[in-house]
Description:
Layout: E1 25-30, H1 37-56, H2 64-89, E2 92-96, E3 99-107, E4 110-117, E5 121-127, H3 131-135, E6 138-145, E7 152-158, H4 160-192
Antiparallel strand pairs: 1-2, 2-3, 3-4, 5-6, 6-7
Amino acid sequence: MGQDQSVSIKKPSWYMHKLHEDEQFLVSYRKNDMTFMPMVIEVFVLIFVPWYFGVKYNFIFSSHLHSNLMLVWILFVTIFACRRFYMWYMDYYMLTTERLLHIYHLGLFKKHVDETYLNRILNVNFKTTGFISTLFEYGDVSIKIAGIEEQMTIKSVSNPESVKDNIWNMHLTISPLHSDADVDVSDKDKNNNPDNQESRG
C-alpha cells in the first residue's frame, strides 16, 4: 500500500522525465495500487463472461471460426488492458530539488508535462476521499501555486499527509535561497543605478 516517502537524492528511473543539468531527483509519486483494481475487474469481466457463455452453450469449440473469434477477442482485450496499464503507470509526479512535475500521457505517444518551481508554492493540503481511501491510506494532495488560479492536485496518492509534508518542507528549504538571490540582485541593481549613487566632487 505505502510508498517510500523519503526525500533523499536518488537516481531517477530510465523512463522518467529528463531534468535540468543541476537539478536532482528526490522522489516520485503515483496513484495507489487500489486505484487500478476497477481496471483489473473490467478486464476480468471482458474475458470471463464471453468465455463462460461460450463454453456453456458450446459456441467456442463448435467450429474453428468460433475458436479463432474467441482468440481474437482475448488478444484485443489483452492489448486494451496493456494500454490502460501503461496510461495508469505513466501518470506520475516527480519532486526534485527545484520543481514539482506532473507527467502523464493522453496516448502512447502523447506525453504532457506540467511543472511548478518549488519557490512558487503558496500552500499544500491533503484530504481523503472516502472509506476506501481511508482504509488503504491514500488521498489527494492539493498544491496552490502563485499566479495560477487552478491548483495542482496529486490524486489518490499513498500516505497523502507524508507527501504534503515532503513538498512543503522542500518549499521551505528552497524559498530562502531564492529570497537571498533576489535580495542580492536587487542590491546590485541599486548600486549600478546612477540615480542612487552619491555625487562626488
